[in-house]
Amino acid sequence: MVDWNPKLEKAFQELKCALSKDPVLKLPNMEEEFILRTDASGTAVGCVLMQEEHGVKHPVSYISRELSDRERKYSVEERECLAIVWGIQKLNRYLYGRTFTVETYHCGLQYLKTGKVRNPRVTLWNLAMQNYSFRIKYIRGEENVMADYLSRAIE
Questions:
Q1: What is the chain's mean pLDDT, rounded?
Q2: Structural domain of residue 118, as residue ranges?
Q3: Domain with 69 in it: what CATH number?
C-alpha cells in the first residue's frame, strides 16, 4: 500500500509532464538498432529503451523498479550494473538476438565486456549476459536525464 503524499504527487506530476514532451514515445522498428539507457540511485533502477530516427533518439519504452533492501546495500558499481542486467532481461523481447548499445554514465562499466572486472557479483552478471550482443557506451550525466529521473522518482 502506497502512502500517497505531496512529495509523491509532485513526482508523479513531473513525470507525466516529462513523458509528454518531445521526444515522445514511438513504436519500435524491429529493423533498427536499439539503445538502452540505464541508471541506478540508492533506491531504484530506471531504464529507457530508445531508437534513433532522423538524428533524434525517441523512447520506445520506460521501465523502473524499486530496489529491495538487500540491493540497496550494493555498491554504486553493482547497482549500476544491476540496472543494465535488469533492463536487458525485462526488455528481452526487443534485445535478444540483435546488437544494441547500452548507454550509461557510470565510467567503470565501460569495461564490463573486457573481462577485467574485479567485482564477483558484477562478473557473474557479466557471464549471465553473454547471450546478448551489445556494446557499452559512456555518456555524460546530462544526456541520461530520462533514466536518471526514473531511478529517482520512487525516492
A1: 84
A2: 6-152
A3: 3.30.420.10
